Amino acid sequence: MKIKKGDKVQVITGAYKGTIAEVIKVFPKDDKVIVEGVNMVKKHLKPTQANPDGGIIEKEAPIHVSNVMAYDAKAKKASRIGYEIKEDKKGNKEKVRVYKASGAAVK
């Protein structure tokens, strides 16, 4: 999975199509991600000692990773992600993620 926690992504399909937000959590085994402010669901909480009132809260639910694309701020559009081997002056090699649209490195 090429999407990581903290990446800016754009939702490409569904009710939240076009939304640009940050990835909060990643579930690689299930191929799902939680994106900030996307796929909001209401959850009913029972009263507990920690939360004596209980109540209904709104929280983000996971969506499939195929429904989002990494957002390239330089190109101002959603982009695929590839990998490149970068070599520094000392000769150390490092594998970095790059946007296919602009060629810029992902933070």
UniProtKB/TrEMBL annotation:
Q: Name one GO biological process term.
A: translation
| Taxonomic lineage from the root | Bacteria, Bacillati, Bacillota, Erysipelotrichia, Erysipelotrichales
Listed InterPro entries:
KOW, Rib_uL2_dom2, Ribosomal_uL24, Ribosomal_uL24_C, Ribosomal_uL24_CS, Ribosomal_uL24_KOW, Translation_prot_SH3-like_sf
What interactions and quaternary structure are annotated?
Part of the 50S ribosomal subunit.
What highest taxon heads this organism's lineage? Bacteria
Name of the protein described by the UniProt record: Large ribosomal subunit protein uL24
Q: What are the UniProt keywords, alphabetically?
A: Ribonucleoprotein, Ribosomal protein, RNA-binding, rRNA-binding
Function recorded in the entry = One of two assembly initiator proteins, it binds directly to the 5'-end of the 23S rRNA, where it nucleates assembly of the 50S subunit. One of the proteins that surrounds the polypeptide exit tunnel on the outside of the subunit.
Q: Which gene encodes it?
A: rplX
Q: Which Gene3D superfamilies match?
A: 2.30.30.30
What Pfam families does this protein's entry cite?
KOW, ribosomal_L24
